[in-house]
Amino acid sequence: MSTTYRLSCDCGNATLTAHGEPEVSLYCHCGSCRALYGTVMLAGTAWRDDKVELPEAEHIIDYKMSDRDMRRFVCKTCGVTVYGRHKPGMPVIPHSLFRKANGGELPAELAPTLHLFYRDRVLDVADDLPKSDGGELMGM
């Protein structure tokens, strides 16, 4: 049986649905992700396009970084980031949306499996996950 995740921003205006399993759940420490998501590291899941139903265009703002091929899609009403798109091109859904839909907890099956660009970190993380200096653990 396949799992379905129904997710939304804080106001419920921008909704998305993810089906099955993500391609990867990870932490990314690169400067680009930190800048795009406005955080010390990205905690998110990457999904194939055929496994995600994205929000209607009229409910989101598409923000493109001026110097990189990276995009962040936010709710027009409350400003919450609902997903991003960058290397390798799949929708990346922040863990925060899954936590919001699951009583504040990340579903166990979505636990991160690795750290990317750990050499660029601004915060040390003491866990047993593989820590890649670059993107080599993802073939980047």
From TrEMBL:
Protein's UniProt keywords contain Lipid biosynthesis: no
SUPFAM superfamilies, alphabetized: Mss4-like
The entry's keywords: Lyase, Metal-binding, Zinc
Alphabetized Gene3D superfamilies for the sequence: glutathione-dependent formaldehyde- activating enzyme (gfa)
GO molecular function terms listed in the Swiss-Prot or TrEMBL record: carbon-sulfur lyase activity; metal ion binding
InterPro entries assigned to the protein according to its UniProt record, in alphabetical order: CENP-V/GFA (IPR006913), Mss4-like_sf (IPR011057)
CENP-V/GFA domain location: 5-119
One Pfam family from the record: GFA
Family to which this protein belongs: Belongs to the Gfa family.
Protein name: CENP-V/GFA domain-containing protein
